[in-house]
Amino acid sequence: MKHCPCCVQATSAGLPCWCHEPRLPMISAATQRLLNFLSKVDSYPHCPPQVTLVQTHASWVFIAPPFVYKIKKPVSLGFLDFSTLELRHDDCKRELVLNRRLAEDVYLGIEPICEHEGSLHFGGYGVVVEWAVKMRQMDPRFFLLELMKTQNVGRREMDRIVEKLQRFYGTQPPLPPAEVRTANEHLRQGTEDNFKTSAQFVVTSLSQSALDAIAHYTREFFAQHGALLDSRLHDGWIRDCHGDLHLDHIHLAPESVCIYDCIEFNTDFRCIDVACDIAFLAMDLDFNGRPDLARYIVERFALLLEDHGMTSLMDFYKCYRACVRGKVESLHASAETVAEGEKQASLQLARRYFQLALQYALAGSKPRLFVFMGKVASGKSALAEALGQETGWPVLSSDRVRKSLA
Q: Model's pTM, two decimal places?
């Protein structure tokens, strides 16, 4: 059988193609028909050379050069609700407005997908069956995560990002007292929701011991540093932020910096402490092996924003952010419509994010050395190995090192 361009493209990327795959039982016939339509090159008015599908736990994204079309999955996950066409349309409108704050040239508009006389088409006439956010495709070479793989990224690149975000935070006034009064309670509830959701993935993504340790650290921080967290409300640091500042959402082209795909579907996730927003970026720099750049941006933001409390909160917020990423990757891996290779990749990412969260809970961000001492056969090596397995930290045995040196 001759494969269509989207099949070839999807297969090469390790993604499912909807043109020829049998309809999965959890997807309605109407949704499957929509996915089939969006996977075909001749469905688009501009006739792209190919169509590539990428999906998250909440959206299907169709890359149809030079544009990208994003539709919401008809799901309700507790922290978001896209279960009806009206809710999805409202969310598309919010996504457009909010993302134009940091990526104005990327978000082009909202396109209706209509049905007329039994056929689907973009816009114009007929009954609207779905809404798509239309974006300009960005050069894949300049996403920050890709740049870090292919070339040296240093302080100069970080300064461009810090400058963009500093201006953005400056345009976002502190939220009114009535709105921020419950911000810390929302944060506390958000962490508890993370633990509740993550409990579903014990064994597959993390151990029960790791989850218990992260939860204990978080609850103790709330108990011991309540005054510091409350001061953030009174000092005006709760603002309408981005909410999802990981490396793949930053596009660092030679001529511009675009930061896209903010949290539009949940106000509590976006109207947060500026330090919590920055912690996401710092955490992902740690995750990708650049703790030096993570420390640098935190120091720069604290200086430029004149935020003297930021550094004291950073490990707490980074732990929270790593848990969020671990949860999101676990949810993605559990989606029935995700291909097996993609499931395994997401599970691997989830395990690494949860490991990082545990590292913050146990040792913070600074380099640490743990030394286990005791009598012969008292369990030193077993304990060290267990901790190393949970955290991903290297384990050095004095017996082995001594014998190797000898």
A: 0.85
